[in-house]
Amino acid sequence: MIEICSKFSERLEAHSRRMINEDGLKAGLAFPTGCSLNNCAAHYTPNAGDTTVLQESDVCKIDFGVHVSGRLIDCAFTLHFDPKFDDLVNAVHEATNAGIREAGIDVRLCDIGETIEEVMSSHEVELNGRTYVVKPIRNLNGHSIGPYRIHAGKTVPIVKGGEQTKMEENEFYAIETFGSTGKGYVHDDMECSHYMKDYDLHSEHIPLRLARSKNLLNVINKNFRTLAFCRRWLDRLGETKYLMALKDLCDK
């Protein structure tokens, strides 16, 4: 995937940095550009050395965002080249728009999820002579967004039966939908590429024994605070030989 991330995603990130007038933690990228392929639903950006190349038959989810003074936007689109995936992409697009129309002050989050599932599941896609109902991925959700906090505590389900918590005035949300021709359930896999400090613990003192871990934490606090980041961004800052320290921070 380095072909798309080093060329497309790096260009996208560079363009976003210019447009937002990147200025440290005052304005910049909100999280690493996602380039999730095929059965990888989300939250993957290539690490250095990844040689995967985007193919004509691939379905690639591009996820990107910027922030100003910690106010984030979370945006995504699906990139595909084979028209056989048009119906799949259209199903998810229509479900997303239905969720946006349903959203509003005092709307129950579970009602948004039920609407999204109803619209998405009404679509079918034919692939290689077999017909599939488009299923929402039930353990992926939209979410509320807060200052310097991409996931601010509330989740917006994309299936019926979710919590009855309501949207409130002055809240910000990402309405995210994920459609699948598979089982509609994801699990962790592949090499980790996204990192982020635990927002609820970011102001607490965590004792660290390794000097390299302390130094890396200072770099993270200075450049990202509680925003998500990736190893490519540490590389860009000139950090080297940090994997052991990064693992130590994750373990803590």
Automatic annotation (TrEMBL):
<comment type="similarity">
    <text>Belongs to the peptidase M24A family.</text>
</comment>
<keyword id="KW-0031">Aminopeptidase</keyword>
<dbReference type="GO" id="GO:0006508">
    <property type="term" value="P:proteolysis"/>
</dbReference>
<dbReference type="InterPro" id="IPR001714">
    <property type="entry name" value="Pept_M24_MAP"/>
</dbReference>
<dbReference type="InterPro" id="IPR036388">
    <property type="entry name" value="WH-like_DNA-bd_sf"/>
</dbReference>
<dbReference type="InterPro" id="IPR050247">
    <property type="entry name" value="Met_Aminopeptidase_Type2"/>
</dbReference>
<dbReference type="Pfam" id="PF00557">
    <property type="entry name" value="Peptidase_M24"/>
</dbReference>
<dbReference type="InterPro" id="IPR036390">
    <property type="entry name" value="WH_DNA-bd_sf"/>
</dbReference>
<dbReference type="GO" id="GO:0046872">
    <property type="term" value="F:metal ion binding"/>
</dbReference>
<keyword id="KW-0378">Hydrolase</keyword>
<keyword id="KW-0479">Metal-binding</keyword>
<dbReference type="InterPro" id="IPR018349">
    <property type="entry name" value="Pept_M24A_MAP2_BS"/>
</dbReference>
<keyword id="KW-0645">Protease</keyword>
<dbReference type="GO" id="GO:0005737">
    <property type="term" value="C:cytoplasm"/>
</dbReference>
<comment type="function">
    <text>Cotranslationally removes the N-terminal methionine from nascent proteins. The N-terminal methionine is often cleaved when the second residue in the primary sequence is small and uncharged (Met-Ala-, Cys, Gly, Pro, Ser, Thr, or Val).</text>
</comment>
<dbReference type="InterPro" id="IPR036005">
    <property type="entry name" value="Creatinase/aminopeptidase-like"/>
</dbReference>
<dbReference type="GO" id="GO:0004239">
    <property type="term" value="F:initiator methionyl aminopeptidase activity"/>
</dbReference>
<protein>
    <recommendedName>
        <fullName>Methionine aminopeptidase</fullName>
        <ecNumber>3.4.11.18</ecNumber>
    </recommendedName>
</protein>
<dbReference type="InterPro" id="IPR002468">
    <property type="entry name" value="Pept_M24A_MAP2"/>
</dbReference>
<dbReference type="GO" id="GO:0070006">
    <property type="term" value="F:metalloaminopeptidase activity"/>
</dbReference>
<feature type="domain" description="Peptidase M24">
    <location>
        <begin position="20"/>
        <end position="179"/>
    </location>
</feature>
<dbReference type="InterPro" id="IPR000994">
    <property type="entry name" value="Pept_M24"/>
</dbReference>
